[in-house]
Amino acid sequence: MPIIKPQGINLSRFLASCITLKRHLVATDPTERSFTGVVSDQAQLDAIAALLHTLEGINEAEVFAAYGVAGDDMRAVLEETGIPAGFHPLLAGYDALPNVATDSTDTTNNTDINQVILSSISAIRAIRGSDELARIKTRLRALYEAGPGTKESTDNTDNTDNTDSDQQESSGISAIRGIGAIRAIRGSDEADEEDAVVTGAHIPIPTETFLEELSVRMELHPISVYWLLEELRSEGARCKPEERRLLEDRLSVLVLRLLGYRWPAELATDSTDNTDNNKVELSGIRAIGAIRGSNNHTVRGSLEADADGIIPLVHLGTGEATLAERLRVRLRAEDGETGAQRTEHLLTELTGATSLEDWCARLFWPRHVKQFKARPIAWQIASRPAGAGKKRGTRQPPLFACLLFYHATGGDALARLRTQYIEPLLRREESALAEALGKRNSEGAALANARVEELRDLLGRLQQVEHAGFACPELDALLTQEPLDRWSSDGIVMLASTEDLARQERAWQVDLNDGVRVNIAPLQLAGTLAGEVLKAADAKKAIADRARWRADERRWVRAGKLPRCGWMDTDVPESPAWTRLAPEREAEQRKLKEKRAAANAKQGQT
């Protein structure tokens, strides 16, 4: 398509504003690299979303007008992609821009953009009358309290409301372009039955925020939805699914920081080299400054990380605090004693957990695995009680459970887990067993013996992972073709035998660059995790993939395509073949540089 510049407004400024607003929403998502903190006040996020979707609607209108898309053409597009939230009509009395403070001293651009927004939506005010307000609020409250993604039995239960809604939608779409001439997507001569089909049509492009979802389903402008939600919340309406998400996000972030994780955007704020590249531009946008209000708990430098990346979920008798105890200390520091108790009470209300300990042991990890799309950075190691695998309701909680930070799995992580955490607990249980036997307490001895066997079983599984976690048939086949040289070892000293090579390659030696999938697979297959992360077939394939990757990389090093294997230290001397082929690589680089210069020169002439 040809690139056409819309007339009338500076569209690039609107696009930049959309990007800035979206960045602030993204920065509240713990799965994003730019994450800076959880915002617990949903109203703050809704204010940003309302402005974002309003600007998106104006942008859509400008682009339609620039390309002359109207009438049947526009109708065809919108029936396929869905009507933008910003095209829907406003409700009388609910049409003011969200009033949120700004931390920018340059208000010139803010004022210009605000005036354009107001002029663009001013023509679609009193679309719905006050007589419908009660019905609108009742349906919006039901959708809001049900939470994102909830299906209604029918979107419009009142037949009279269908006709009114359709007329309002058409009027709103034709009026949204107060600075141009966007056309209604439906003509006045179209049949009512066609309108009904469009009203219930599938929207292939998913909504990005809960506010946008509500706007689309209610067929109301995002700004009106924002003010209606503010009113409903003041009347006591609650969206418990969103409350739960925000609260569990906050606690999950605290857990990851206690383990030692820091997000890239946080690390960049401490680096003068990266600050400029990671800075989010705040000027030219209204309603940004207060998004990090008093409800956002900044803990970056004040939250001490665990020394070894292992936090127990149960009491070990060694004096080390459990995860729940550490979280409770953090909550008291941020919210005070009363606030911390209120937070725990809310957690039990929203999640069904009996306590903070129950949430840490039972609910955190499954949610973390799902949130990080089966690539968790906190791994829950747990023993297997007698009767594990039986139907739900008959299983006992594990005697030992802990969280292991993925970035701390290098070196002797499993050895430390065994000797410093599990074995002290085992010795305590063995003492209890000996005491029960000495007192001829058969029932107590049986119970103590089951606990001892549970811990010994976990120790055996961890030792199996340590020594043969990456063993697989594919590795055995590849080792028969592997020559014994320094590249099959550590890059410095050659191994003495193929048996030594086999022991090295089968052992669970973590290379973080292989990713979570590869490194967690041995722990899952050995049954040491609290639940499955990968499908069983994929876990086996991940281990086979690793064997092939390492064999390929050693072969490339010997051929001079790489200086050394990626898992080796950078001070390992480079491959002789790599050194020998240096002149050829330099010649190739010169050719590429000349080709780029010629292409740039040719482009400059045209």
Strand/helix succession:
HHHHHHHHHHHHEHHEEHHHHHHHH
Poorly predicted regions are 101-108, 155-200, 272-302
Radius of gyration: 31 Å
Distance between the termini: 20 Å
Put the structure in a nutshell:
By secondary structure, the chain is mainly alpha-helical.
Topology readout:
Elements: H1 11-26, H2 42-66, H3 71-81, H4 108-121, H5 133-146, H6 159-175, H7 192-199, H8 210-218, H9 222-234, H10 240-259, H11 264-269, H12 275-278, E1 310-312, H13 323-351, H14 356-371, E2 378-382, E3 401-405, H15 413-438, H16 442-468, H17 473-479, H18 498-506, H19 516-525, H20 536-558, H21 576-580, H22 582-605
3D architecture notes:
The protein has 606 residues and is mainly alpha-helical. Among the domains are: 11-238, no CATH class; 576-605. Helices cover 55% and strands 2% of the residues. The chain has 22 helices and three strands. A three-stranded antiparallel β-sheet has the order 1-3-2, covered by helices on one side. Helix 5 (133-146) crosses helix 9, helix 10 packs antiparallel against helix 13 (323-351) and helix 13 packs across helix 14 (356-371). The longest helix has 29 residues, at 323-351. The two termini are 20 Å apart. Residues 101-108, 155-200 and 272-302 have low confidence and may be disordered.
Name the descriptors.
single chain; 606 residues; mainly alpha; three-stranded antiparallel sheet; 22 helices; 55% helix; flat
